[in-house]
Amino acid sequence: MRKVTKTLLFLTLTLIFTLSLISVACGAQPSGGGASTVTVTATKTATATVTAAAPTKPVKVYRMEPATWIAAGSPWDFLNYQAEYLNKLSDGRIEDTPSAPGAVCPVEEQIETAAAGTTLAMLATPSYYPGKVPLAALYNTGIGLPSWQDMKVAYENFQDGAAQKLYFDALEKFANIKVVGTRYGEVDCIISSKKAIPDLAALKGMKFRCGDEHFAAAFTALGASTVWFPGTEIYTGLATGVVDAFTYGSAYDHLGLGVQEVTKFWVDAKALTRANNEQFVINLDTWNEMGADLQNLLYASVESADWRSATESVLSINNAWQTAEAAGVQRTYWSDADNKTYTQKMAEWAKKYTDQYPEDAQFMQIIQQYDDFMGY
């Protein structure tokens, strides 16, 4: 009789314990989303504790396809270095895949596209925005700044970053974006041409593709004609005779386009732009949603990729010249007198903005004060 009683007691405990587990497993989760601990007591001699796993909120993934104005050279390198950094360190919360210029939107609409949320981020060059943000015309020219290091220090550090603040404020007022930071590059800008340009007189009557207003204004003043079309069309434009020459960046950038195959005369003149920059911008609503940890990661990604791409660009430019000259390119230099005349034309063009816009005048005053401080 005692054996039967013990057996019935054991079966009863087992049944109660099983029903309790089913109740916990099938019942509604407690509010608040935390883990739930339920203690089931069958008798004084049988107690079981069941912990239900806490429901996990899916991690939001921010997918970015940033582009810039060029699919080769230092700006493109920057995007790839930044993507490598973010994809490794964001724990999967950011997926960064750089896209070619024009794949997501036209280059001249990159800021607006990010502002609208059509894409999350872009590396936008000031060269395409003077008509919308007047200070953009001067911010990218580097007038009076001989290197990318000078540009970075003059913009970000001199007078507590007053120059940078002027431009960032202008961009953020223009569109629904956050300016995260800047890529600076050693440009040592050149002209690639199908015709020899040994001096300024040779510019007369030539047809140029220019993406920068300061180039177009100076060339026009010296007798050339200018037109703009996307960088992806430059090679074809040269090959088909639409233009005779173009400006785009350094020898490294030009080599990346393969134009050594259709141009044999490259001008390396001191008066041409020595440094340039682009801004990494992100949709403001997305930026505010991300939180401090991802925001700080984005700040760090820009700084890391900037230093890597900028320092590498100096070596890349030197190597590019060797490659280009080995391919038959003739490197041409202008005289000091021609460089001085060209610089004067640039200064005349800049007055178009400094005379009209107070922020442009203030910006150029800061740069002049930096030049005086450095003894340039």
The gist of it:
With 376 residues, this protein is an alpha/beta fold.
The radius of gyration over CA amounts to: 31 Å
Quickly give the CATH architecture of the domain at 68-189 and 271-374.
3-Layer(aba) Sandwich
Secondary-structure element order, as H and E? Answer: HEEEHEHEHHHEEEHEHEHEEHHEHH
Structural class: alpha/beta
CATH topology of the domain at 68-189 and 271-374: D-Maltodextrin-Binding Protein, domain 2
Specify the CATH class of the domain at 68-189 and 271-374: Alpha Beta
Overall pLDDT metric: 87
Walk me through what this model shows.
It is a single chain. With 376 residues, this protein is an alpha/beta fold. The chain has a domain of 226 residues: D-Maltodextrin-Binding Protein, domain 2, CATH 3.40.190. Helix content is 47%, strand content 16%. The protein contains 13 helices and 13 strands. Strands 9-8-10-7-11-13 form a six-stranded mixed beta sheet, with helices on both faces. It has a three-stranded antiparallel beta sheet with strand order 5-12-6, sandwiched between helices. A two-stranded antiparallel ribbon has the order 1-2. α2 links the parallel β3 and β4. The N and C termini lie far apart (109 Å). The N terminus is likely disordered.
